[in-house]
Design goal:
The chain has 214 residues and is mainly alpha-helical. It is built from 9 helices and no strands. The relative contact order is 0.05.
């Protein structure tokens, strides 16, 4: 009888220990889960970024989409997704991710620059003007923004503003030694010069027409 009581006590003790061990295991796993998710997120984000650098944009999108599922409000993931979708010609998807980035991080230079680029690509000049105005508020001498603001003003037939932006850009770029300019910068300077001349000619034509009506 005494031995049976001891055995019953030992059995109860074993069951209790097993139950405690199981509950500790569950608690431990639940504690480790956020850490595992964070590790996976960082891995996917890094892999997506590297694939983007290698210009493997479709593969980058897959990795970054998976990262976005783990952390839906990460600014940089949405920014990289916006860039990747742009490079594969997905204009609307690119715009959606970049707008999400803007919501999460207002007044972000990179986000506004990319939004300006996408809006120009989609022919949305008013939206591009807002984005590039934001860029210039953050970085007043941004070459790209100055050129595109001049381009937008030209298409709006606001020739004085067009000239002002291109003149400001040319003044900044012409103090740089030509040998220090990249091929892309040289092409942009050439295009800006052509637009500057077109602005001047169009302004003269508009002024001449105005004088004839007086």
């Amino acid at each position: 009888m005494f031995r049976l009581a001891i055995n019953s006590c030992m059995l109860f003790l074993i069951i209790t220990l097993v139950a405690c061990s199981a509950s500790q295991g569950v608690a431990s796993r639940s504690h480790l889960q956020p850490m595992a998710d964070e590790d996976n997120f960082q891995r996917l984000k890094t892999e997506g970024r590297l694939l983007g650098i290698e210009k493997k944009f479709f593969q980058a999108i897959i990795k970054l989409d998976q990262a976005a599922l783990l952390r839906p409000n990460d600014v940089h993931v949405h920014l990289m997704l916006g860039e990747a979708h742009f490079h594969v010609g997905h204009g609307s998807e690119s715009l959606a991710h970049l707008k999400k980035s803007r919501e999460l991080a207002p007044n972000n230079y990179q986000v506004e620059s990319w939004l300006g680029t996408i809006h120009i690509e989609l022919g949305q000049l008013s939206e591009a003007e807002v984005a590039y105005s934001n860029v210039l508020a953050l970085k007043p001498n941004d070459y790209n923004a100055l050129v595109y603001m001049g381009y937008i003003a030209f298409h709006k037939k606001d020739y004085p503003t067009c000239q002002a932006y291109f003149k400001r850009y040319k003044r900044l770029i012409e103090v740089i030694e030509p040998t220090r300019l990249t091929e892309q910068e040289k092409r942009r300077y050439q295009q800006a010069t052509e637009y500057y001349r077109a602005c001047d000619a169009s302004w003269r034509d508009e002024t001449l027409k105005l004088h004839k009506t007086l």
